[in-house]
């Protein structure tokens, strides 16, 4: 352990030489980005007296903004824009409580975004569980990853819950605003005239085809979006599937901590979603997904996965598998944001950008998108000049990068690192990562801060990966360098780079590390526009 600590210390000192430059640049970028948003947010925005208060139905098409989808992103955006006095029409395919195993984990960074939006009470009264970190297990060893929450008030922590309960709480808040219309319907297409999106066509509950018009349409209809193809260049990768089911009559080893087992062939994640239930998610590579219907999946879980589960969870794990209808499968989709500017329309949430679900960062990215978009829209009295508004809102795609790219890359890299491989270099990388976390203190603080969304900085991400690589090479060279150890160190660096660099490239090197060179970063709100003109 002493040798490991010395290697870690050497790595930290060496990396700090570059770290100073990284962190200084990161602080400068963050300061300028926040100053831009604060300037926009502090400007005068539409007052509530601009809203029709007669209580009469305005009919289809009399909204400032149409939002497609009332999931986490759509509902949060509708509420925040409604509170700012906008007339908002929300069209959601199904207003019943979602019954899904995605979106059950909200990391601390996401909870802070809820506070910014005035929605923190939505995690109350749904039996949500506090999440303070994770414990990683491999080969009988473990590493504690605690979220660095010392500087925050006691209520700030992660939350885990049933997704449907959380979404319904958000929708209830939306429905409380008289200037926001929330209706059930399936949007089939965007209405476009001369290259400008004017609204949407949709079918209501009676299967009647209707049209709705607004100056701006925000599409946030989730990972299965049928509208994204007209607004971005989607390239979806599915490296694995999560096989999920609920365990009862058991407790995790550490209260308020999730558990991640680095099993073979890929990780198993446990997290409490109520006071009596634990969600188990087994990551299964895409090419090896057994069938649920013919019993192959249950057999696979019992014979291949169960022997690797923690002893205190084993009996409940077997019982959950045997419970009829308890096993569900969901794809882990990865899609970098690649929007093309479309006047009159904007993409946010999973419709725009997806990452592997292993870190539970999806809702945090979506809520961060909502905060940025709300602040950009606040100074705008008039949204009718679609081309001008579209150019101004282009800055959204750069301003979202600190949070989105940090969480995206971390999730996508970890799912590869945590997956078993016959490559000895990959095995060395797993042990290196766990060893780095076990050092504690300054070595794990930064990694856990990024993991929980409290340090959204691509430069910090690069700095910590560089530090881990130095630690890993030093660990392999002990006690004395030899040709074989040097070769192993080179292979570790190669494998680590081959995992990390493609994800950095897909997120956009310029937007991530040099946002001040992107012209859209400096876009300011249009000063004047024609009188408000709502389409009917």
Unreliable runs, pLDDT <50, ≥5 residues? 1-32, 39-59, 530-536
Distance between the termini: 71 Å
Which structural class is indicated by helix and strand composition? alpha/beta
The CATH class of the largest domain, by name, is Alpha Beta
Fraction of residues in H or I helices: 40-55%
| Total beta strands | 17
Task: Provide the β-strand percentage band.
Answer: 15-25%
- Might you state the CATH topology name of the largest domain? FAD/NAD(P)-binding domain
Largest beta sheet: strand ordering:
10-9-8-2-1-11-17
Query: Using only CA atoms, what is the Rg?
Result: 24 Å
CATH architecture of the largest domain: 3-Layer(bba) Sandwich
Mean pLDDT: 87
Count of individual helical segments = 15
Domains counted in the coordinates: how many?
A: 3
Protein name: Squalene monooxygenase
Main location: membrane
Function: Catalyzes the stereospecific oxidation of squalene to (S)-2,3-epoxysqualene, and is considered to be a rate-limiting enzyme in steroid biosynthesis.
EC number: 1.14.14.17
Structural account:
It is built from 15 helices and 17 strands. The protein has 536 residues and is an alpha/beta fold. Residues 1-32, 39-59 and 530-536 have low confidence and may be disordered. The longest helix has 41 residues, at 2-42. The chain starts with a helix and ends in a 23-residue tail after the last helix. 41% of the residues lie in helices and 19% in strands. It is globular and about 70 Å long. The protein folds into three domains: 65-126 and 161-236 and 335-384, FAD/NAD(P)-binding domain (3-Layer(bba) Sandwich); 239-333, 2-Layer Sandwich (Alpha-Beta Plaits), CATH 3.30.70; 403-509, no CATH class. Strand 9 (196-204) and strand 10 (209-213) form a beta hairpin. Strands 10-9-8-2-1-11-17 form a seven-stranded mixed sheet. Keywords: FAD, Flavoprotein, Membrane, Oxidoreductase, Transmembrane, Transmembrane helix. It is found in: Membrane. It catalyses: squalene + reduced [NADPH--hemoprotein reductase] + O2 = (S)-2,3-epoxysqualene + oxidized [NADPH--hemoprotein reductase] + H2O + H(+). It is an enzyme of class 1 (oxidoreductase). It comes from Gossypium mustelinum (Cotton).
């Amino acid at each position: 352990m002493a040798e490991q600590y010395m290697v870690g210390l050497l790595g930290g000192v060496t990396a700090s030489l570059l770290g100073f430059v990284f962190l200084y640049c990161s602080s400068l970028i963050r300061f300028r980005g926040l100053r831009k948003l604060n300037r926009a947010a502090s400007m005068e925005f539409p007052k509530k007296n601009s809203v029709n208060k007669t209580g009469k139905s305005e009919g289809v098409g009399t909204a400032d903004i149409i939002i497609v989808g009332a999931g986490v992103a759509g509902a949060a955006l509708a509420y925040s824009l409604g509170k700012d006095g906008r007339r908002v029409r929300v069209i959601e395919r199904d207003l019943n409580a979602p019954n899904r195993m995605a979106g059950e984990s909200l990391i601390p960074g996401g909870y802070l975004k809820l506070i910014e939006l005035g929605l923190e009470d939505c995690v109350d009264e749904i039996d949500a569980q506090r999440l303070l970190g994770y414990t990683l297990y491999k080969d009988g060893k473990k590493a504690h990853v605690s979220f660095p929450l010392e500087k925050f008030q006691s209520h700030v922590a992660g939350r885990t819950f049933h997704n449907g309960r959380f979404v319904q709480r958000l929708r209830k808040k939306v429905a409380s605003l008289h200037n926001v219309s929330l209706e059930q319907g399936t949007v089939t297409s965007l209405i476009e005239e001369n290259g400008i999106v004017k609204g949407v066509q949709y079918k209501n509950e009676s299967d009647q085809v209707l049209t709705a018009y607004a100056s701006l349409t925000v599409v946030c209809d989730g990972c299965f979006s049928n509208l994204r193809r007209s607004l971005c260049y989607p390239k979806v990768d599915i490296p694995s599937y999560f096989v999920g089911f609920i365990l009862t009559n058991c407790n995790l080893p550490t209260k308020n901590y999730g558990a991640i087992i680095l099993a073979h062939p890929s990780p198993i994640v446990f997290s409490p979603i109520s006071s009596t239930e634990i969600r188990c998610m087994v990551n299964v590579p895409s090419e090896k997904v057994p069938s649920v219907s013919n019993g192959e999946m249950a057999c696979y879980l019992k014979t291949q996965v169960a022997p690797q589960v923690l002893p205190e969870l084993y009996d409940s794990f077997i019982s959950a598998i045997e419970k009829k209808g308890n096993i569900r499968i969901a794809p882990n989709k990865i899609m970098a944001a690649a929007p093309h500017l479309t006047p009159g329309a904007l993409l946010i949430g999973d419709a725009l950008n997806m990452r592997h679900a292993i870190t539970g960062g999806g809702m945090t990215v979506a809520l961060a998108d909502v905060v940025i978009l709300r602040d950009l829209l606040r100074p705008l009295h008039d949204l009718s000049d679609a081309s001008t508004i579209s150019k101004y809102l282009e800055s959204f795609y750069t301003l979202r990068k600190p949070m989105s790219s940090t969480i995206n890359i971390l999730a996508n890299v970890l799912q590869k690192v945590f997956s078993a491989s016959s490559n000895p270099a990959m095995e060395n990388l797993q042990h290196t990562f766990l060893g780095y976390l076990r050092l504690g203190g300054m070595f794990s603080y930064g990694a856990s801060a990024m993991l929980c969304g409290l340090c959204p900085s691509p430069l910090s991400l690069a700095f910590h990966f560089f530090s881990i690589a130095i630690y890993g090479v030093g660990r392999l060279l002990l006690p004395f360098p030899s040709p074989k150890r040097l070769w192993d160190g080179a292979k570790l660096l190669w494998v680590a780079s081959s995992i990390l660099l493609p994800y950095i490239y897909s997120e956009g090197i310029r937007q991530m590390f040099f946002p001040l060179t992107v012209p859209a970063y400096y876009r300011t709100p249009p000063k004047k526009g024609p009188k408000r003109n709502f389409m009917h």
